[in-house]
Structure formats: C-alpha cells, structure tokens
Model the fold of this input.
Amino acid sequence: MDATTPIQLEDVCYSYGKGALKKQILFDITTQIESGQVVILTGPSGSGKTTLLTLIGALRSAQRGSVRVLGHELLNASERSLIKARRQIGYIFQSHNLLDSLTIHQNVQMATKLANLRGQEAKQRISSVLERVGLGEHEHKYPRELSGGQKQRAGIARALVSRPQVILADEPTASLDKQSGRDVVELIQDLAREDGSAVILVTHDNRILDIADRILHLEDGHMKSIGEVVSEGTSRMLNLLEKHDPQTANYLATFSFALARIAYADGIVHDSERDEMRRILHEVAQLQSSEVDFIMELSMMLKRTRSGVDERLNKPALDERRAEHFLDSMYAIARADGKVTGEEVEEIDEIAAEFNLFEEIHNSKKDGESHDEH
Done:
C-alpha cells in the first residue's frame, strides 16, 4: 500500500450480532481514495454505506481486512488509536448538529479545541473558514437566526476549520432544498480541492453525481463498479421503453444518452439543463415524470462511464425528421443555461458525426429536391 494515499481499504468485512443472529454487512471491500479526490458513495438503504463510512471515520473498529486512514491501521484498533485518528478527520452530517446555545463562532471553536488549536491561531482559522463558506457576517449569530442552508454551511466550517486531510459527509443535502443542496456540495468540492483533502460523500441525491471524481456503489454489502450499475440500469431502461413502444425503445435510449453527453460537456450540469431534458424526453416519449427521471439520471451516469451498455442498444436508423429533432434537442440542452460553450458545440459535432445526422438531413433534402424536379 502507498503510504501517501489517505484512505486505503483492502478486503474489508464487517458483521453485526453474534452466533445465530450474526449478519454480515460488508463483503471484501477494496478501494483507495487519493488526496484531492471527491468520491460519491451510492447504494440503496441497508447496503452498508453508513457502516463503511463509520469504519473509515474511526467511529468503530474494523473486524477483518485492512482499513488504513492517514497512516492509521484501524483493524482491531484500540479506543485510544481510534480517537487519535478521529481528530484528523472532518465530519459533515445529514443534520448540522449545531448547539443552539452557542453562536456560530463558538460552535466552530469547539472543533479547534479538539484539534489543540488555541489563541490567535484558532481565532484566525475560525474567521477564515467562515469567510470561505460565506458566513463571515454571521459568526456572532445563533443557529436559530440562520436558514437551513446557512446552518449546513456552518457545519461544513466546523468540519474544515482544523484542515483535515479526510472529510466524510453523510447525506449532507438530505434536509436542504434543491439549490441549497447543490450549493453545499459544490462548496465541499471547492474547499476540499483547495486543501487537497480526500472526500467521501454518501448520498441518495442523483442530482449531485456530476461533482464526483469517482462514484462507488454498494449493494447488499458488495462494492460494484459504476459500469456494472449502469449496465443493469440500462437493461431496466430498455425493458421499460420496450413496454411503451418496442419500435422506438432503442432510439429513445440512444437519444437520452446523447442529451446527457451535451449536459455534461462543460463539466457542470445545471438545473436548467436537467429541466430541459425532462421536457424533451416527456414530449418525445409521453412517459411519467418518475420514468423520465430514471432514464435521465441513468443517462447521466452512462456519460461518466461510456461502458456497460446493454447489447440491445445500438445506433438506430434515423430519418430526416428524427435527425433534425435529434440535432435541435442537443442545441436546446446546450442553450438551456443561457450560453453555448465551445465544449458543448464540440460534443454536438462529435455526436452528429457518430450518427451521421448532417449527412442524413442533407441526403433527405437532396432526395426531396430530386423528387420535386421529377
């Protein structure tokens, strides 16, 4: 194992209970996370996400395998060793967990005491981190005087004030509205990269998957690659589309993936682009909102992998009408956030070349002109 890698897991297993009541939760988990990486951990409820996070966070001792965090081996670690490791980790919880009787400054100050920061250095760190999260003018207010998003930002400030090299965030957007949630994860991403911290973010919120450098997926205690997840999801999507219209299922799936590629082209998926994808897919396929959301989110994940595609998914034949609609829809996604970037235009041109869109439109028009002459 590389000693410079902040998080290293090898064949990690964990069980609850004893004897006949013993239940294994994690099975042979192996991965590593580098400094500056933002890794999102996904999976259904009960898949073992929180258990894995508590093992990495030194909140419990590992039972089997190796869990190395910032040089600390946590397998069968003593309570003293766990406490030492915990003091080097920043925790961001689903709820901000601020103490109502303390000001925001005092809440953040509690973390500096755990990190043995005192005096002027502690004061400067607190002021600096509150400025970074946009709460510089609110440090002497009490939690009840802040909005939900501001309180979560205060929780982030408390986690980052000691400049930890590992940050663990458990559903940090769960109690926030869409925009506040987006702002919070982008803030975590920006601050982590500035400080070179390794971040693991557990979430069910598919709207924030695009901020991740990597996505890990847990299911029934087993780590799956995002490619496997996409492969299974693609099969589900094609089955769903075939029930609506077997003749157009392949086209709709391919069309959805193309729109996702445009949305991702400039590295940021704006809510306006997501809304435009929903509108177009609903208009084209007449699917229910939940079905459109499932297809759209899977398309976003496929854009990240470009792999694991169901063998039924291949390039569909396009007539002039579909080719023009395909092209117009891609430009509609690109324009949705108010500007069309060079990266989006390049992606549109690449997709158009893959599917011969310009050639199909040109040939159809040429055929039409030839027909008119006769």
